[in-house]
């Protein structure tokens, strides 16, 4: 138990040294979303702008003794209006991140990807879990387990590049990407293995950059050096991957939840590929996981500022 959260705690402690990230908190109309935003603000991770129906936000704060004095509130009558207003704050340069409150993810992402008034870039939007797995030395990025249901080969290029950029923002010494399937050989009967082979060739041709990438790899030989040795896989990624790219949303969802519920892992969630990072938290998330999601967004925003352009 002593190891629990240690990777998240290092991340949070580092981000406390950065300026608070101006963050539009979208429709924080229940205890967990409002309290999560305020707790992140109190330790200096974010500078929240609360966007939603003022009376409901103030009523939730009063009911649960959450101190929101001093935090600006942008009054928006309902959840979709709050999402639109929050996106507009980003477009006006008043916010550098979005944080999901008590609205559906689809409502928030609909405003983000809207063609004329949203926050699109040239990249496909994708989701990453940054997972803190007890007894595993490094943080693991798992993608995409929440946004793209059955991504095409072309979409997987962006999903992988978003995850690589996140690895650099998180200051991984080396980003090592495993493209997962059920086996480590290319088999025409298993389409994900064929796509993995094509993606690796795209890395060779510099269509994907910034990491060492290998696949197809099965989960065991992607993260366990002994499994890779037994299978005689000669690869700089096998056995030591820190980014796991899944074939589709179903596989990713099962992988992330099995790590959470069977291995005691925590999963900070973030959406990349838009102009700013989007913090996605769940009501079931622990306080530390919520804070870690904010810290991940702070590092993504810092990388974006440092590079002078939006990630993606």
Report on the architecture of this protein.
The protein is α/β, with parallel strands linked by helices and about 300 residues long. The chain folds into 2 domains: about 1-120 and about 275-310, Rossmann fold (3-Layer(aba) Sandwich), CATH 3.40.50; about 120-270, Isopropylmalate Dehydrogenase (3-Layer(aba) Sandwich). It contains 11 helices and 11 strands. Strands 3-2-1-4-11-10-5-6-9-7-8 form an 11-stranded mixed sheet, sandwiched between helices. A hairpin with a 7-residue loop joins β5 and β6. α4 runs parallel beside α5. The two termini are about 35 Å apart. About 50% of the residues are buried. The model has no long low-confidence stretch (mean pLDDT about 95).
Q: What is the count of structural domains?
A: 2
CATH architectural name of the largest domain: 3-Layer(aba) Sandwich
- Under the CATH scheme, which class of the largest domain? Alpha Beta
Low-confidence spans: pLDDT under 50, at least 5 residues?
A: none
What radius of gyration results from the CA coordinates? 19 Å
Question: What key phrases describe this protein's structure?
Answer:
globular, 312 residues, alpha/beta, Rossmann fold, 2 domains
């Amino acid at each position: 138990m002593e190891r629990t959260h240690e990777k998240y705690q290092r991340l949070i402690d580092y981000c406390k040294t950065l300026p608070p990230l101006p963050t539009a908190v979208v429709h924080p109309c229940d205890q967990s979303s409002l309290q999560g935003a305020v707790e992140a603000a109190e330790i200096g991770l974010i500078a929240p702008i609360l966007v939603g129906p003022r009376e409901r936000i103030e009523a939730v704060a009063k009911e649960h003794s959450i101190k929101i004095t001093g935090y600006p509130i942008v009054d928006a009558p309902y959840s979709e209006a709050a999402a639109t207003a929050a996106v507009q704050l980003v477009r006006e340069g008043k916010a550098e991140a979005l944080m999901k409150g008590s609205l559906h993810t689809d409502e928030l992402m609909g405003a983000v990807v809207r063609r004329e008034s949203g926050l699109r870039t040239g990249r496909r939007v994708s989701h990453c879990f940054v997972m803190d797995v007890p007894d595993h030395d490094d943080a693991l990025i798992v993608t995409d387990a929440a946004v793209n249901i059955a991504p095409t080969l072309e979409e997987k290029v962006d999903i992988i590049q978003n995850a690589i950029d996140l690895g650099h923002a998180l200051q991984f010494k080396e980003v090592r990407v495993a493209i997962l399937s059920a086996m480590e050989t290319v088999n025409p009967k298993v389409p994900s293995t064929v796509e993995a082979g094509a993606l690796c060739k795209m890395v060779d041709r510099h269509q994907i950059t910034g990491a060492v990438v290998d696949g197809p790899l099965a989960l065991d030989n992607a993260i366990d050096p002994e499994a890779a040795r037994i299978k005689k896989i000669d690869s700089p990624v096998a056995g030591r991957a820190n980014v796991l790219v899944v074939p589709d949303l179903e596989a990713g969802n099962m992988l992330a939840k099995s790590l959470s519920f069977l291995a005691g892992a925590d999963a900070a969630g973030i959406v990349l590929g838009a102009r700013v990072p989007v913090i996605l938290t769940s009501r079931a998330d622990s306080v530390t996981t919520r804070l870690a999601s904010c810290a991940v967004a702070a590092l993504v925003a810092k990388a974006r500022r440092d590079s002078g352009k939006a990630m993606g």
